[in-house]
Amino acid sequence: MSESSSIAVSAVDLVKTYRAARGTPPIRALNGLSVAVAAGSVFALLGPNGAGKSTTAKILSSLSRPDSGRASVVGIDVLRDPDAVRRVIGLVSQKASSDPMATARENLVLAGRIQGMSRASARARAQELLSRFALDDAADRLAKTYSGGMARKLDVAIGLVHRPRVLFLDEPTTGLDPEARAEMWAEIGRLAADEQVTVLLLTHYLEEAERLADRLAIVDHGRIVVEGTPEELKSEMHGDTVHVELASADGALKAQGLLARLMGLHDIASDGTRLRARAESGARAVPAVLAALEDAGIAVASVTVARPSLDDVYLRYAGRSFEAAA
């Protein structure tokens, strides 16, 4: 397989600017974003709301045009042949795509017919997906009666009905309870293998990206700041993270300054009552941290030491914690 044929999704130097309200500057949603997604993989674009993830998906799925840059899906130029792109992709947006006044079966058959399938093929594919997503027992209930998790499964099934080669999932588990989220994660994890589909996952959940993605790219202010496998990115962060929870936020700035002066600590950041620092050995750093804060009269509620996380990676490359960015 050639290098080009092994890439299912490609974006090169995408720039997109939106007009803002009169009297305010335009909003630069994408600022030279480039990414390449290997065929048959689950690739996550990870970033807080407003980072540029949805804008990227809209351009790649032909729903929006960039100001500049290039994009292709399975070798098809998105700008030159958007109709061909739409035939090979599935899109599950943040908003529900099903008709609430139709049953799940009716929704799936309609989606298949819209994609050019015969009635018999659409009905067969609908039953296959109902079974796949464990919706058999509710197949002939109106979609408006579905729970959040069931409705989201139906959305994904609709996106898969025509057997797309690439599936865009935009925040697929937002608003779901933990059990429904775990079920959706299990389904997404099986998509690449069972459906032979490349999945581009857009998410602001660190755990979701870490659990599902073969590779991920962190998006910040419309650009990719770092890319790799979750383990690669975390392994670059040598040492430990020391988390300090202060009793109040009054001394947060002073505490941050104190930690910055301690030998062996770096990447100091604060957010309200919480401080975070990197250290080669968190266990050895904790006594010095507690002593410095106690001598300054700053009350500490708790101190914990943890191995590197994707939040630490985000802090390193974006200059702030993921939670603060969100």
Number of strands: 14
What is the radius of gyration computed over CA atoms, rounded to a whole number of angstroms?
A: 23 Å
**Pattern of helices and strands:** EEEHEEHEHHHEHEHEEHEHEEHEHH
Largest sheet geometry:
6 strands, mixed
Q: Point out poorly predicted stretches.
A: none
Pairing-aware structural class of the strands and helices? Answer: alpha/beta
Strand content: 25-35%
Q: Round the mean pLDDT to the nearest integer and report it.
A: 91
Morphology call:
elongated
Which strand order does the major sheet show?
6-7-8-3-9-10
Question: Into which percent range does the helicity of residues fall?
Answer: 25-40%
Task: Calculate the terminal CA-CA distance, rounded to whole Å.
Answer: 40 Å
Task: Provide key terms for this protein.
326 residues, alpha/beta, 4-stranded antiparallel β-sheet, 12 helices
Q: Would you kindly provide a written description of the structure presented here, covering whatever features stand out?
A:
With 326 residues, the protein is an alpha/beta fold. Helices cover 37% and strands 28% of the residues. It is built from twelve helices and 14 strands. The chain has helices spanning 53-60, 82-88, 104-114, 119-132, 148-160, 178-195, 206-212, 230-235, 252-260, 282-295, 310-318, 322-325, and strands at residues 7-18, 27-38, 42-46, 68-73, 76-77, 89-92, 166-170, 198-203, 215-220, 223-228, 240-246, 265-271, 274-279, 300-306. It has a six-stranded mixed beta sheet with strand order 6-7-8-3-9-10, with helices on both faces. The chain has a four-stranded antiparallel beta sheet with strand order 2-1-4-5, with helices on one face. The radius of gyration is 23 Å and the shape is elongated. The model has no long low-confidence stretch (mean pLDDT 91).
